[in-house]
Amino acid sequence: MKIAVVGDSISAGSPLWDPDPDVRARIPAPDERSQWQWWAARSDPRLEFRTRAAYGKRTDEIAAFLDGVVEGADVLVVQGGINDVAQRRSVEDAARNLAAIVERGRALGLPVALADVLPWPAGDDRAAREIDRLNELVHAIEGVTHLPFHDTLAAAGFAWSDDGDHPSVEGHRLLGERAFRLPAV
Length: 185
Prior knowledge:
Blueprint: E1 2-7, H1 9-12, H2 21-24, H3 36-43, E2 48-53, H4 59-62, E3 75-78, H5 82-86, H6 91-107, E4 112-115, H7 125-139, E5 145-147, H8 149-154, H9 169-179
Parallel strand pairs: 1-2, 1-3, 3-4, 4-5
């Protein structure tokens, strides 16, 4: 099963991995386990991921990644929003952007899975409130399989981030094994 993924640094695997070989060449010790997709494919070897994701991208920028990954895909996974919060952009606009990406995927005939926004250990109270609000809006988007990235990590019971911004390898394992679910195909 071919799965197209569009997203930000969370889906890229930052800081230890990136789907772009040029970016990956600049990482001192790249580790492909720092990608939730690696763990999902390890759990189900039938899954083949094609990812277009990049550090720092907002939802309006993630939308441009869609055309580069959907050809031949069976499913679309959309992940993003934390950079909108970090850059103090409107979470309502971010939710509209995510809904538009979902609609484009559905118009292409793809079942769509939509990840909610992770907790941000290095963020402040404002960011936490904005993440909660954005996740409310994300969960109101219908016709998708919702991926509980936030609650999976929030309930982990351990420090799942090495840098305060991104999941550690163990955090990515939780996302790939517990939070990722395929939509009905």
